[in-house]
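Below: protein 1.
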Amino acid sequence: HTQTWCEARKFGYVDDIPRELVEALQAGTCVAMVGAGLSVPAKMPGFEALLRTVATAAGLQLRLPENGSYDDLDSVQFQLAKELGKEKMCTIMRSKLYLHPPLPEA
């Protein structure tokens, strides 16, 4: 049987979502990195595809390790951020992860 987040929270299985995080997401000043289990069904890129998209948009050559792990992808993400700067990288990511039209309010 599937539990909702509210039920899981009631039993202490998950933490409360920090108010500051919710506000930053609503304001568009935070990029939520979620697993492909959420992004791909929403027709959004997975982590590797997002990194490729950011590099292409910035005109950079992306160097992905063969058979890389998520730690390897994290390293690539940090290298991209170093080369592009945080603001530019976030702007590109935000533009690729923005839903048109946005999801309705919960």
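Below: protein 2.
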Amino acid sequence: DALCRKALKESRAKLGEDHPKTLRSLVNFASLLQDQGRLGEAEALCREALEKTFSSWSTLPAGKAKLREDHAQTLVILQKLALLLQGQGRLAEADALCR
């Protein structure tokens, strides 16, 4: 937990909030929290990563945002969030993310 927090803090400071490596750190931390049964905290981190991914699309040139929806990292975040929701019994929400 402490190492993930440190890595995330350093990534945010050095690379920025919406850098792909920072987003990966968010998802890695979420995975650790999920393994510890801290699903609510893990969900919040996944949602933060997803929000930052979507908000970073607005800085892309016209026509490029569509490509980002299929980016491997975006799909990993969506999958992680869907699994977290499924684990909490929130099947309709999880299903909506998978469509």
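The radius of gyration is 14 Å.
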